[in-house]
# Entry
Amino acid sequence: MAVSTPRAQALSGAEVVRRSLEGGRTDWRSIGFESLLVGLLVLTLGILAWLLVVVFVNGIPVLAERGTDFLTSPLAARPAEAGVGQAITGSLWLMAFVVVLSFPLGIGAAVYLEEYARDTWFTRLINTVVRNLAGVPSIVYGLLGLAVFVVALGDILGPGSTSGRSLLAGGLTMAILVLPIVIITSGEALRAVPGSIREAAFGVGATRWEVVRSHVLPYAAPGIFTGTILSMARAFGETAPLILVGAVIGGFNVEYDSFIGILQGRYTALPTTVYDWARKPPSFSGNVYAAIVVLIVVLLLVNALAIYLRNRFERRW
Amino acid sequence: MTVNQNWSRSLLGIGVVLTLVLAACQSNPSGSGADPGASGGGDSGGEIFVSGSSTVEPISNAVAEAYAADNPGFQYVVEGPGTGDGFALFCNGETDIADASRAIGDEEVATCGDNGVEYVELLVAYDGLSVITSEENELSCLSFLDLYALLGPESEGFTNWTDANDLAAELEAEFGDEFGAMNAPYPDASLDVTAPGEESGTYDSFVEIVFGDISEARAESGAITEDQVETSRIDYQASPNDNVIVENIAGSPGSLGWVGLAFASEAEGVKSLDVDGGGGCVAASDETVADESYPISRPLFIYPSLAAVDEDLELAPFVDFYVSAEGLALAGEVGYVVLTEEQGGATRAAWEGR
Amino acid sequence: MTAVPAQPPPRLSVADLRGSAGRRRRELAVRSFFLAAASISILISFLIIASLAGEAFNFITQVDLALLFERGWFPRRDLYSIQTIVGGTLVVAGIGMLVATPLGLGAAIYLSEYASPRVRRTVKPILEILAGIPSVVLGYFALQVLSPTLVDAACPGATNPSNIAAAGIGVGILITPLVASVAEDAMYAVPRSLREAAYGLGARKRTTSLRIVLPAAISGIVAALILGLSRGIGETMVVSIAAGATGGSLFTLNPCEPGQTMTAAMTALATGSDQVRGASLAFPSLFFVGLLLFVFTLTLNLFADRFVRRVRISY
# Structure
């Protein structure tokens, strides 16, 4: 036994056990396995890091050269004049639609499913439907928007020269796209609140709504927050549905004479602008990278916000 | 309770920030410094909608920008979904001007007629179509016959340049020098074709100019069917994205395809072949396209709707500017070939005589 | 002194507990709003099916059924070979999973079993952020950078850098962070007690990870893979930009040749069809393909649900 030798006394008990279990040979397969795993992780991060490096190396010079001019200029025929000003505005408007429509409806639906619903066929149907909707490709939502909001309701939502391709159509489409995700993430956050919290509230005579409002929602808020903010980030990056529903791919200069005018008018968005410029001659390639940098930076900020909020308000049970 | 206050406060904060940002942007949605609500005199309340060819889109965009710079309050939307799509919208009465990289087709004339849409055809610029191949390809010139043998409807299944040798010999026997001198036998290399797809006007122009007469003659002699006249082979890599076409062409030594001259001159890794349309090999350049010595040059048109001109008081002055010498020159700034004085004058006459 | 008679405590009735009428009305109103919100999801599903079905029916009744099995998908030449685009979608998604599964699961196992807490704390958020890279960005990257280099390696001798393999690799890279993130969540959630039991019996980390943790988390891992596959099938922008969004292609299952997926076909139809809403069947075919895609992903999700529930191990 090695324990009695002076050299062995330097080994801890764990070491001794491990040595005797492994028989003293080096375990190549385990080392190989771990190296493989590290390699795969590094490869995953590496390819994506490569993407970010390429994007930033090509995009930052354009941004540095043109500064805020790039961020405020409208779409234009010449790359040196074209900017993402209109695109950013359009995307922000679409986010507003998502916040105003999907968040209340989504959180409300989640509250119903988690707090109010009994286990009936109806509830199970809704659950299945929501899960399936979350998996539907975004381009199908684009088709829905095209058929319903542009063609069928076009005269109401986007009359006149807009021909139905209005901001309303785009915003409604994005809101519908994001809704299932909001429902699912909010539901998960609500489910994580322990039953004892609810029971305590019921015990003092609160109605179900009062329980939810005063006890469940505050505690589920961080999780709901993260989910909603991340779904907003997802909507910010969506391209295909907006192409179908009529975001301007080209150039435009429109004045809106009222708030309703804005809603019923044409618009464009940042990801669709990237898509458009990617098809243009190489003289636009600097612009493409710069626009991608803007897109990624916004997404990074939104994600960082979500992570920060989650960490700040997280409570451990 | 702290958690209660904090989360609702944060929510409020985000909402306030979003509203402020939107309010700031709302006061300047067009980004061009114009007042909201101040529109040019007598306008019917909407913007001018120009749609059609993605080739002509940069020109229309540049012209509209220049016009808007001098006429604040001028509202427009310019899009480039494709020549065919543009005509479909135009003949449906949805757009004010149709951009086109080819002349309006018979079916489209009929549809417009049925819907009562009247228009005037205005030539605004020329664009050449470059036949491109990889820089490693040793060939320097191809004739219409060669192009038909390699890319036409009868060349389906040819994966090597040499596959087209027989067809090329047949064509030479039939047509002689009419469509250019034959350059067969071809080198032994893999034939990889990447070119615009059928949705694009670039495709239409190319097959019409290069294959038109040859394929009609072949149909008459029974070598191909009526349906195949003015079509290309099916089995090639089609892409509406010219960048993809250039990438692919640059990537393979035996590649062959075509893109607009404006694109080809900016692209790296590819070379434009000289083309022989019956008058000898001519290189593609702005000059040869302008004097029409380069055989594959296509005219670019706009079609303003006469009804829209009457309804929208903004449209006529805009088109006046478009066809003025200053407006037409903008085509050069976005890479196309500007019309000569004579050609520009003819366009202006057509517009004034509407 | 007058003795107060001992009275029994007042009996409460349910009416007393129920509270004021106003409170009850509010409760009912709130409940109805939430119910309505939840029912909207059904309305949306119905709308999707209805809007797609109309034009899809239009297409299927007008198209010559023989054309459906033609040799290629060329909507403008009236060749609507469904097998071309379905095949293309499956091959692209398949290659995507071939790329994403080892990368994603490898990263997940490492993060959950081997990485120190500090590494996990830094890398996990990075993965989540990377999962949010918009596909249009990856598409452009694949076009400019990936296609030339990687595809040469994957398809030696392939002369066309735009092919199914390029799209597949791009899609794979896109869904890897998603697969990694969700799979890692599943594995991390396996209780320590299971691992400790294994170590207690003398198992190595490698054995524990592969034989204990992986099977315990299998439902979550399968869910992650299905999520990735779903995303891969529905992916549009990477295929549109990098693989050429071809106006059509011949039927092929060879990844080293150019091909067409359902989503790219839809984009091509919508962004430049010859006669949108015209006499040709191109416009209705857009909806037909959309319906096909919807049914596809629906079936996949239903199957996944059932499968995941069956293999789920509760502990």
